[in-house]
């Protein structure tokens, strides 16, 4: 940073009221510490506390670093608030945030853009589910997930049709809209993307969870997953993962950063699972690991994201 930049005030918005509050507080602390190490004047604000909007108005930061995960943070609501307040913020705008958060809507956009993604059935609360029809459409093994949650909250693998009702019940605890997705076996590869008009893909990262899939504990408990960079797939497949991640970033209209999760099958086919517009920024998170592999240490990554936020939208 130059001397003229050192006085920039950044509000780190963390906490919130979603099911991912604790993760958000951890992310916010690490981002705030990193920005302070780069010379920023950092204001830490918990959006779960009453009066946080007044605090934002009083502080009038030069930019807001949103470290909120899940609802009321990653879904476009806070982005809309900051637009009304006239405050620049890190990450995607209202529409892209909402689209990426809603797994059903994002599937529509992926299909329109020609991006391969696992087949699915969309179910709303109160609708009857014909297990035989679902099995015929998707196969006996499926992944059941709330349409508007993150961090694998409420996600269950249904190994056979008899497990589907219980998996749906678990997902409906968190959302009125649920996705039943075809289970695709393969290597889990995630790709971080950084940039606005000319985004770039970071190195591929292979996720090896200790559990059956990359669940909440695997994401946030040290030692419960391994990150391998680059992913142990062919160079051609790695390039395809990066290409699809960039295409998804553009298809949804993302800005600043995103992280795309893909699955690579044994025959080298790549399918996109979902896009996160506010990836985790904790010690065990994926985007910081990928950036580090590209030579971007965590404080520099946070610095770059603030600079991107200050570019005209």
CATH superfamily of the largest domain: ATP-grasp fold, B domain
Radius of gyration from the alpha-carbon trace, in angstroms = 19 Å
Give me the strand/helix succession: EHEHEHHHEHEEHEEEEHEHEEHH
Query: What share of the residues lie within helices?
Result: 25-40%
For the secondary structure, the number of strands is: 13
What would the principal axes of the Cα set say about the shape? globular
Question: Could you describe the 3D structure shown?
Answer:
The protein is α+β, with helices and mostly antiparallel strands. The protein folds into 3 domains: 3-91, Rossmann fold; 99-116 and 185-309, ATP-grasp fold, B domain (D-amino Acid Aminotransferase, Chain A, domain 1, 2-Layer Sandwich); 120-182, ATP-grasp fold, A domain (Dna Ligase, domain 1). The protein is 36% helix and 23% strand. It is built from 11 helices and 13 strands. It has helices spanning 21-37, 52-59, 77-85, 94-101, 103-112, 131-138, 164-172, 216-220, 235-252, 286-293, 298-309; strands at residues 9-14, 41-46, 63-66, 120-124, 142-146, 156-158, 177-182, 187-195, 200-201, 205-209, 225-228, 256-264, 270-276. Strands 8, 9, 10, 11, 12 and 13 form a 6-stranded antiparallel sheet that branches. Strands 4-7-5-6 form a 4-stranded antiparallel sheet, covered by helices on one side. Strand 8 (187-195) and strand 9 form a beta hairpin. Helix 1 crosses helix 11. The longest helix is centred in the C-terminal third of the chain and has 18 residues, at 235-252. It starts with 8 loop residues before the first strand and ends with a helix.
């Amino acid at each position: 940073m130059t001397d003229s930049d050192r006085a920039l005030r950044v509000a780190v918005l963390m906490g919130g009221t979603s099911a991912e509050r604790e993760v958000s507080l951890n992310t916010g602390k690490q981002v705030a510490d990193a920005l302070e190490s780069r010379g920023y004047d950092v204001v830490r604000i918990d959006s779960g506390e009453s009066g946080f909007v007044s605090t934002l108005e009083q502080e009038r930061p030069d930019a807001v670093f949103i470290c909120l995960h899940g609802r009321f943070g990653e879904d476009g609501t806070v982005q809309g608030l900051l637009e009304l307040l006239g405050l620049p913020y890190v990450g995607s705008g209202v529409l892209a945030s909402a689209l990426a958060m809603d797994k059903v809507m994002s599937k529509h956009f992926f299909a329109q853009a020609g991006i391969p993604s696992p087949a699915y059935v969309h179910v709303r609360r109160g609708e009857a589910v014909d297990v035989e029809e679902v099995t015929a459409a998707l196969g006996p093994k499926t992944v059941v997930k709330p349409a508007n949650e993150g961090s694998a909250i409420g996600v269950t693998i249904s190994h056979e049709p008899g497990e589907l009702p219980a998996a749906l019940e678990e997902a409906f605890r968190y959302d009125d809209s649920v996705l039943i997705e075809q289970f695709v076996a393969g290597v889990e590869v995630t790709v971080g993307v950084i940039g606005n008009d000319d985004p770039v893909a970071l190195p591929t990262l292979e996720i090896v969870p200790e559990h059956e899939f990359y669940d909440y504990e695997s994401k946030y408990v040290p030692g419960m997953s391994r990150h391998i960079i680059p992913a142990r797939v062919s160079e051609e497949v790695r390039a395809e993962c990066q290409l699809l991640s960039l295409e998804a970033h553009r298809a949804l209209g993302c800005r600043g950063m995103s992280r795309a999760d893909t699955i690579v099958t044994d025959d080298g086919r790549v399918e996109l699972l979902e896009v996160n517009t506010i990836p985790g920024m904790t010690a065990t998170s994926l985007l910081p690991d990928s950036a580090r592999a590209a030579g971007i240490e965590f404080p520099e990554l946070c610095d770059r994201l603030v600079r991107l936020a200050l570019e005209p939208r």
